[in-house]
Specification:
The complex is a heterodimer of chains A (839) and B (498). Chain A is of the alpha+beta class. Chain A is built from 30 helices and 25 strands. The relative contact order of chain B is 0.11. Classes of the chains: A alpha+beta (839), B alpha/beta (498). Chain A: One of its GO terms (cellular component) is NuRD complex.
């Protein structure tokens, strides 16, 4: 069956990362085609063996049959305790005795020891009826228990070793439903960062803030009556406010007598709807069809008379198609209703005389469309027709550039259209031929994401196999019996356990060990692969073939979802260890970040030539951020500029403005950057130096302007630079990006090193500042490869910057800058403003 | 009591609703409602029902449930200034899933207005089934947006229904748990909420089967957690028994069915495997109880299937067989490559074993056993107040509209003058120079001394209101035509005018 080897997004699969360890269980989130093969983005499911026994002990003992499924507003359950976590259980649950909480820390070690003897500590997390099954069966059941994590990793799809099923534990099902092979269940979410197990449950909240006010049925009438009484004074007050001319008393007397029935009716507001069409109208279906045909014919006539339409519609055929659009139908139906379903009158409405006074046609208002009376046939057109060809082209262009961000499209391309017009047009456009043609062009881009992937069954022998792989059905006798089932005959034998012990497993037990992560019974070497891994790590970390895949944490599905079921005390050694680990991770990532940020342009260029992936580096230096903040809007408006990529930046003005900035502005800027731990002195020093550089620059520039023929000598250089630029931008935009706001893209390798001294100055200054900045930002930094679709803003910024890069390809070679100011760009300015100068 | 066996169906739609846009890449697309509308228009279903355009809900109507502070914020929030008010945005959970988009308040007004209008129509017994695909935003909380929902039109509609109906049943077949509605009525025994949804590592995280309500509302919330890939057959096997049991025990006098279409196969966010038939079966089944029924929309993120589904369910409501070939319409290309109405289930495995479904169902039955058997509900006589309709001169509003701004259809709507004013000779000429009269022209005005004595009482107004009594099919309605400058108008009404 081909289906067995076909893996789709959403499937649960076994992954084999190490031949010694059992398979890992993952769910495929995404399949991406890369150069090296197919990569799968997978969600981690942890086995029990991957989780600290101390934590398991708490969760096993917790009674997870929640009696109260809702949260009462502002009231914490009584048995809430910080130390050992928050175990939702019956109030008399003996598990959460305070004494035990205190001892929890010590007990952790005990628990580790215990874990080698006992299967588990309670029935928590097991299906219904688990208390009645034997110890061994329960042990095996526990092997099928998983813990979901909200973490994602990227793994090569070639490591997939088969499919399995993972289900959410249902409290309505009993043990039998969970005993089949390849079926796992989970009920809790494991958070390795905080060492907690969470119940993946949201809660309905109870309280005045959440419920609707519903009167009681039996008291209904009374309540209503009293309500109306209560309402009367309120109403009076309202009216007092409305009429401030002293006529209150009379009005009050007027109001009171008619109270309930009158007032209620105003309240009820029965004019909630307007009839648009009624079914028992005396017309037959055929009448209506005929009228619609008439309306279409009139539409064709109207289009032929209308100059703007007839110019657009070359053939009669197309005119008919336009006249048959839904708008005509809607319009015809509205006309019928207006004519009170009098066929004759409705036909007259189709061809009104030019003077609208004579025919009170409010049809356009009813349908929301605009009609034109041409002194004969009535013309009504939808957005698809309304838009002229240039408008349509403009829209297409805008769509390519901005994607479907209609707000931006409207602001920059079609300000005379309303948002509604644009949305309406877009959806009609999508159903048109125009779109189909357009789409074909873009088809090629979308291919890298796969829906499913075929992975042939894995047939290579495991390195743990003893002797040759035996593919026949003949069994081989072994001197040592299988550690699990004690058989001495099997097709193949696999070494298992620490190498010193010389244990082996038969074929079937090996498979079940790989899948279930344990043997039939508790065994002292159950976790042997972990100790092996540890020794390898300690011994020769460098020899590790594959670095641990980057873990990306996902955000929880809903903010109110988490209910902590088990949590280790804050002073628990394991918690401390995990914190240390995190800190170390942060430090190392910031280190690598700093290293990249600190690279000189030349080094970056080398890196690229060596075939490294980054072609374009998006990063915002402290300088650039400072410039943005310090400069007044009228000189440098990043938002405006980012919308208008074809607009050149007035670098003179920027340089001038920067040179003239006073120190107080600089200081406030520095503070505004919200870098509390930033060395102020260093920053100011950097800015000051920059200022000097700028002023020197502008001085030099003014002299050259006078001396040289404007534009001439520099444009060549510019041209070369442009050519070089194009070359670089063809490399796919890198996925590397700092998280600092909207980063202006910088082509990393580009450097017009014509002034060695200045360059020196720049690098000297940039290095410490950039390093510091990178360090500060590193904790938030992430590899942008996995931008989740839900993360709209990020995605958007990523695509816009990509668009910027692409759009730059065109203007540079075809239009060498004739503008003289291009020739004066110093590398400093250029490096601040990133790729902007390419335009 | 009905003259014909077919249900009287009212359908609520505003042509503007499709033009709201949540933002780039956002899965929620109000456009789907317009696509559903165009489909049923071209199928001719339009002719089988009364079509209404709702008046946008007012601030006062929305704050019957929502907090003033929250609605005020929605009303005044401006997408351009979003970054300047970061703190309050988080406070109301606006931002990621629930972006502040252009016209968000109007959008809420439309969806709430539709459901409220539908509820009052059911209250007046003018219709048997009311449909509002613009509504169904079941995640919104009292003072918080959630899961693409800003205002909870369902809660508002149920509150409206409770004015007449002693007990209202809410059923949710969206793939997501209907947590907003459940929360709103968690402690009352007058509203029972039943939700069938995917549970486990799925938005919004609530909806465990053990979740049954609190205080007085204990046992008045039912949740059926489901796993991936449930198909039509399995769904039917749980939906029908559960709902019939609920109908027996709770005996609601009105039902609100949330028809979120993200439980269909191939949904962008969903993971069930239902087709239109399985989904529509729920509507069909509820129709058979002959209880006033309100259908609202909800989720649904593969818009071609959403519009298919809601069009089909409209057809189910009006008892009309529609062909499988889709009629040509503006959005025809969306339905390629097959251009058929019905969709095929995918081959995804159904993770809901029979045992799982049965054991969950029996545990739900166990809870229902605790419900007191509700006494059978008598059809209540209509309250007379509901028959009184008031109209005011809205011309002042129109005069002050900015001519450069495109009017919303509802504004436009208010401006519509009835043609009969100019053309109907039978109309007494005297009325022409007075405020416009809104009424169905087919029914001639009756004499004042007609049988409805109670209503004549309300005509004895000191300020010279004119009263027209009209006979419609089932309900006698009084129209009070007010002079534009009557001084006894309610405070909010007069502010409305100026």
């Amino acid at each position: 069956m081909a289906g067995a080897n076909m893996y789709r997004v959403g499937d649960f699969v076994y992954f084999e990362e190490s031949s010694d360890a059992p398979y890992q269980i993952r769910r495929i989130e995404e399949l991406n085609k890369t150069q090296s093969g197919v990569e799968a983005r997978v969600v981690l499911y942890h086995r029990r063996r991957d989780i600290s026994p101390a934590l398991l002990k708490i969760s096993d003992q917790a009674v997870r049959r929640f009696d109260n499924y809702y949260e009462v507003d502002k009231k914490k359950p009584e048995n809430f305790s910080d130390a050992s976590g928050f175990i939702l259980s019956e109030p008399n649950g003996s598990e959460t005795k305070p004494e035990e909480d205190e001892k929890e820390g010590e007990k952790a070690e005990e628990a580790t020891e215990e874990s080698t003897k006992k299967a588990d500590w309670g029935n928590g997390g097991l299906p219904l009826g688990a208390e009645n099954i034997g110890e061994e069966a329960r042990f095996r059941l526990r092997q099928h228990e998983l813990f979901l994590s909200r973490q994602v990793e990227i793994m090569p799809a070639s490591q997939i070793r088969g499919k399995c099923r993972v289900m959410l534990l249902s409290e309505a099902e009993d043990v039998d439903s969970y005993t089949s092979d390849d079926l796992f269940f989970y009920s809790l979410v494991y958070d390795p960062n905080h060492m907690t197990l969470l119940a993946d449950k949201g809660a309905i909240r109870v309280g005045d803030k959440f419920q609707a006010v519903v009167e009681n049925d039996d008291e209904n009438d009374e309540a209503m009556a009293s309500q109306t009484k209560n309402d009367v004074p309120e109403m009076e007050i309202d009216e007092d406010e409305d009429n401030e001319n002293g006529l209150k008393i009379d009005e009050e007397e007027d109001v009171k007598p008619k109270t309930s029935s009158e007032k209620k009716s105003a309240e009820e507001e029965e004019d909630r709807d307007v009839l648009v069409f009624k079914s028992d109208n005396g017309l037959t279906d055929r009448d209506i069809d005929q009228f619609i045909i008439l309306a279409r014919s009139v539409g064709v006539f109207a289009r032929s008379m209308d100059v703007s339409s007839s110019a657009k519609l070359p053939s009669l055929h197309m005119t008919v198609a336009c006249a048959s659009r839904d708008i005509t139908l809607l319009h015809a139906i509205a006309l019928l209703h207006q004519a009170d379903y009098d066929f004759g009158r409705a036909v007259k409405f189709l061809v009104p005389p030019p003077n609208r006074q004579l025919y009170p046609l409010d049809i356009d208002k009813a349908t929301g469309s605009r009609t034109t009376s041409l002194g004969g046939p009535l013309l009504c057109r939808d957005q698809m027709e309304e838009w002229s060809a240039p408008e349509a082209n403009l829209f297409e262009e805008a769509l390519d550039k901005y994607g479907k961000d209609f707000n931006d499209i409207r602001a920059d391309y079609l300000p005379w259209k309303s948002m509604r017009d644009i949305v309406e047009y877009y959806y009609q456009y999508k159903a048109s031929n125009r779109y189909a043609d357009h789409k074909k062009k873009k088809q090629a881009d979308a291919d890298s994401k796969l829906k499913q992937v075929y992975i042939p069954s894995f047939s290579k022998p495991s390195p743990n196999i003893i002797g040759q792989l035996n593919q026949s059905i003949n069994t081989v006798k072994s001197s040592v019996s299988c550690e699990n089932c004690k058989t001495t005959e099997s097709t193949n034998w696999y070494s298992w356990g620490p190498s010193s012990a010389q244990l082996r497993l038969c074929q079937s037990c090996w498979v079940s060990w790989k899948k279930n992560g344990g043997l039939q019974r508790k065994h002292e070497h159950d976790l042997y692969d972990k100790s092996i891994a540890k020794t390898i790590n300690n011994g020769a970390a460098a020899s590790e073939s594959r670095p641990a895949p980057p873990l990306i944490s996902m955000k929880p599905i809903a903010s109110n979802v988490a209910q902590v079921v088990a949590q280790l005390p804050a002073n628990h050694p394991l918690v401390l260890a995990s914190r240390q680990q995190q800190a170390a991770q942060k430090a190392s990532s910031s280190f690598s970040f700093a290293a990249i940020a600190g690279l000189t342009p030349q080094a970056l260029a080398k890196l690229q030539q060596a075939g490294g992936r980054p072609g374009v580096l998006f990063y915002t230096t402290v300088w650039r951020r400072a410039i943005r903040r310090a400069l007044p809007r009228n000189v440098l408006n990043i938002r405006r500029l980012s919308r208008r990529p074809f607009l050149s930046i007035d670098n003179d003005a920027i340089a001038r403005a920067t040179a003239t900035l006073d120190k107080t502005t600089l200081l406030t800027t520095a503070k505004g950057l919200q870098m509390s731990n930033f060395n102020d002195a260093k920053f100011i020093q950097g800015l000051y130096q920059m200022q000097c550089a700028f002023s020197a620059q502008s001085m030099k520039r003014s002299s050259t302007t006078l001396g040289a023929h404007p534009g001439e000598p520099h444009s060549k250089q510019q041209k070369q630079a442009g050519a070089k630029l194009v070359l670089k931008t063809r490399i796919p935009p890198s996925t590397f990006k700092t998280p600092i706001g909207v980063s202006t893209p910088v082509v990393g390798s580009l450097h017009l090193g014509n002034s060695a001294a200045q360059h020196q100055l720049f690098t000297n200054m940039a290095l410490p500042i950039a390093t510091a900045a990178a360090k500060m930002n590193a904790p938030q930094s992430r590899i942008d490869d996995g931008v989740t679709p839900s993360d709209g803003s990020l995605l958007m910024s990523a695509t816009t910057s990509q668009n910027n890069v692409e759009s730059r390809k065109i203007p540079v070679p075809s239009h060498p800058p004739s503008d003289s100011k291009w020739s004066y760009i110093s590398e400093d300015v250029f490096l601040y403003l990133g790729g902007r100068r390419l335009k | 009591m009905q003259s014909h066996s077919k249900k009287r169906v009212s359908y609520y739609y505003d042509g503007d609703v499709g033009n709201y846009y949540y933002g780039q890449g956002h899965p929620m697309k109000p456009q789907r409602i317009r696509m559903a509308h165009n489909l049923l228009l071209n199928y001719g279903l339009y002719r089988k029902m009364e079509v209404f355009r709702p008046r946008p809900a007012t601030f006062e109507e929305m704050t019957r449930y929502h907090s003033d502070e929250y609605i005020n914020f929605l009303k005044n929030v401006c997408p351009e200034k979003m970054h300047e008010q970061k703190v309050p945005l988080n406070k109301f959970n606006l931002g990621e899933d629930c972006p502040v988009f252009d016209g968000v308040y109007e959008f809420c007004q439309l969806s709430c207005g539709g459901s409220l209008a539908a509820a009052s129509r059911l209250n007046r017994n003018d219709s048997d089934i009311c449909i509002n695909w613009m509504g169904g935003l079941h995640h919104a909380k009292k003072a918080e947006a959630s899961g693409f929902c800003y205002s909870n039109d369902i809660v508002l509609a149920i509150l409206e229904l409770l004015k007449i109906h002693p007990r209202v049943l809410y059923i949710d077949i969206d793939i997501h748990h209907g947590d907003g509605v459940e929360e709103a009525f968690y402690t009352t025994d007058r509203v029972m909420t039943v939700s069938f949804h995917k549970y486990g590592e799925y938005f919004p995280g609530t909806g465990d089967s053990k979740d049954i309500g609190a205080d007085k509302g204990m046992y008045y919330a039912l949740n059926f957690p489901l796993r991936d890939g449930i198909d039509d057959d399995a769904y039917e096997k749980i939906f029908k028994p559960v709902i019939s049991r609920v109908m027996e025990h709770f005996r609601p006098s009105a039902v609100v069915l949330q028809c979120g279409a993200d439980s269909l196969t191939g949904d962008r966010l969903g993971c069930f495997n239902l087709t239109l038939k399985g989904h529509g079966q729920c509507v069909e089944f509820l129709k058979s109880f002959n209880v006033p029924l309100m259908l609202v929309g909800g989720g649904g993120y593969t818009i071609r299937n959403v519009s298919r589904c809601w069009c089909y369910e409209t057809a189910v409501a009006v008892d009309e067989e529609i062909p499988n070939d889709l009629p040509f319409n503006d959005y025809f290309e969306y339905f390629g490559p097959d251009y058929k109405l019905h969709i095929m289930p995918s081959n995804m495995p159904n993770m809901n074993t029979r045992e799982y479904l049965e054991s969950t169902m029996s545990s739900l039955f166990e809870y229902m056993r605790n419900l007191p058997f509700a006494p059978s509900v008598q059809m209540q006589p209509l309250q007379k107040e509901h028959d009184v309709v008031r109209f005011y001169d809205k011309s002042l509003v129109e005069d002050h509209i900015d001519p450069d701004v495109r009017e919303s259809t509802s504004q436009i709507d208010q401006a519509v003058e009835h043609v009969a004013e100019f053309y109907d000779e039978k109309e007494p000429t005297k009325r022409l120079d007075e405020a416009p009269v809104k009424r169905t022209a087919s029914s001639p005005p009756l004499e004042m001394e007609s049988a409805k004595k109670t209503k004549v009482l309300s005509t004895e107004e000191p300020n010279g209101d004119q009263v027209v009594l009209m006979e419609t099919e089932t309900v006698t309605r009084t129209l009070i035509v007010s002079e534009p400058n009557n001084e006894d108008l309610g405070g909010d009404e007069s502010s409305d005018k100026s």
